[in-house]
């Protein structure tokens, strides 16, 4: 068993203990950032004269050869190694001899793994941010195509007021825009290097921590060595941010699932993003949307797992923190898959414009505008509210819409009604005259703003 310790032990580790303790089976995906960190550490050791220039060159050459062989499939991960750090170091020593044993000078596995997880998470945050931006582009494209697609907006899942589809989609654009900004905030806050913190109290070697930090793309080195090795806030923040992304995806999926139903028929899912039934030949199921919605609980679970792991840990490093990796890897993989598939599904979905418009005509979505019409004629709003309530009751009795009532029928309820009421409560008027900032009538201006933000 390749381990980075053992001098003070007189027995081999029990096989069951090794299996319970090892992490190579899942932290092997950190090989690239582990090698990258080690190369920068070796470079700094040479610069500071802690190892010779020749030793530095041999170490860096050996590490690059390990990286090349892993990526070419020439070097397989050895299950007898405890973790990715011991695997890389053992292979380095095999390749270059005693010089490889000097790589770990001034370094602990504690700050090494803290660095690896930060580097990995930082890359993942950038990748997820790029996927969010791709989704934003898809939403924006759909918005531009549907500024004149009228539909009902809902409260309590009941028709409330008319809007256009661009305005509706714009609400999700705002959600994912906040997600993008959250990821940027997290990236900036986590961009400090823990390498050189040692086990928890630094080292007596004259390390240049900021030199390594800059070479790894960090702003600078962290400022407290104990916090450096025990901090997982950045990972908790990342899991929190992607949990919010999943929540937004899940809400959107819920709407697509409802809208895809026979009762709504607002959308038609593309065949490439739907599945059928093994027994019912007529079925076309929105499985991708349902799976994205379902996987949201999985991502939430990862966040709760890490929060629970960290909640009672004394300073500084504890082995419990090894539990950060599997949940983080799973959550990060899940949200990336969900973003890719949802963007593809949304890009290919067909919105049934006629059905959306007809739905907006029913359900009295223009009732508020009818009340506003009376207010503009001089009636107090509270009185207008009551009159339109009576109008709605009349429509329910006749099974019709407000605009289907004759002017004579409307005048029975108020003399203030005139023929111009029909224009005032038309879908086009109801939507386009709502010109306050953020309202559907102003959506074209928002679309232009969104273009600049992307």
Present the secondary structure layout:
Layout: H1 15-21, H2 24-27, H3 31-47, H4 53-71, H5 84-96, H6 109-145, E1 150-155, E2 158-164, H7 165-190, E3 192-193, H8 209-215, E4 220-221, H9 225-230, H10 233-260, E5 267-268, H11 287-310, H12 324-348, E6 350-351, H13 353-361, H14 367-376, H15 381-398, H16 407-411, H17 421-424, H18 427-432, H19 443-453
Parallel strand pairs: 3-4
Antiparallel strand pairs: 1-2, 5-6
Helix pairs in contact: 3-4, 3-6, 3-8, 4-5, 6-7, 6-12, 7-10, 10-11, 10-12, 11-12, 14-15
Strand content: under 5%
The strand count comes to 6
Output the helix-strand order.
HHHHHHEEHEHEHHEHHEHHHHHHH
How would you describe the oligomerization state of the chains in this entry? single chain
The general outline is: elongated
């Amino acid at each position: 068993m390749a381990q980075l310790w053992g001098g003070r032990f007189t027995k081999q580790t029990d096989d069951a203990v090794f299996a319970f303790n090892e992490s190579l089976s899942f932290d092997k995906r950190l090989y690239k950032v582990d090698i990258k960190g080690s190369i920068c550490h070796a470079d700094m050791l040479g610069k500071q004269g802690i190892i010779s220039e020749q030793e530095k060159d041999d170490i860096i050459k050996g590490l690059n050869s390990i990286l090349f062989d892993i990526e070419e499939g020439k070097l397989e991960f050895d299950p007898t190694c405890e973790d990715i750090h011991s695997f890389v170091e053992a292979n380095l020593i095999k390749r270059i001899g005693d010089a490889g044993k000097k790589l770990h000078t001034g370094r602990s596995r504690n700050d090494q793994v803290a660095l690896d997880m930060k580097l990995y998470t930082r890359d993942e945050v950038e990748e997820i941010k790029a996927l969010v931006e791709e989704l934003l582009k898809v939403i924006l494209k759909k918005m531009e195509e549907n500024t004149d697609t009228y539909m009902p907006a809902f409260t309590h899942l009941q028709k409330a007021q008319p809007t256009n589809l661009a305005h509706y989609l714009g609400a999700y654009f705002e959600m994912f825009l906040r997600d993008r900004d959250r990821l940027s905030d997290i990236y900036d806050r986590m961009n400090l290097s823990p390498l050189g913190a040692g086990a928890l109290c630094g080292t007596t070697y004259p390390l240049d921590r900021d030199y390594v930090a800059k070479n790894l793309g960090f702003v600078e080195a962290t400022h407290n060595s104990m916090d450096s090795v025990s901090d997982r806030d950045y990972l908790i923040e990342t899991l929190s941010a992607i949990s919010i992304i999943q929540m937004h995806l899940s809400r959107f999926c819920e709407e697509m699932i409802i809208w895809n139903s026979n009762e709504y028929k607002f959308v038609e899912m593309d065949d490439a993003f739907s599945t059928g039934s093994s027994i019912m030949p007529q079925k076309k199921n929105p499985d991708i949307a349902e799976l994205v919605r379902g996987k949201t609980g999985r991502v939430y679970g990862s966040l709760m797992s890490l929060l629970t792991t960290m909640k009672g840990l004394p300073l500084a490093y504890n082995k419990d923190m090894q539990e950060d990796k599997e949940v983080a890897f799973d959550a990060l993989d899940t949200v990336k898959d969900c973003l890719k598939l949802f963007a593809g599904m949304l890009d290919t979905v067909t919105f049934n414009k006629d059905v959306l418009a007809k739905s907006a005509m029913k359900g009295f979505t223009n009732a508020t505008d009818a009340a506003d019409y009376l207010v503009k004629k001089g009636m107090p709003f509270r009185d207008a509210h009551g009159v339109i309530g009576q109008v709605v009751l009349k429509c329910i009795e006749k099974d019709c819409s407000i605009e289907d009532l004759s002017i004579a029928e409307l005048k029975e309820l108020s003399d203030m009604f005139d023929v111009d009421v029909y224009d005032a409560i038309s879908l086009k008027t109801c939507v386009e005259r709502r010109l306050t900032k953020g309202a559907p009538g102003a959506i074209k201006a928002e679309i232009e703003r969104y273009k600049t933000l992307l």
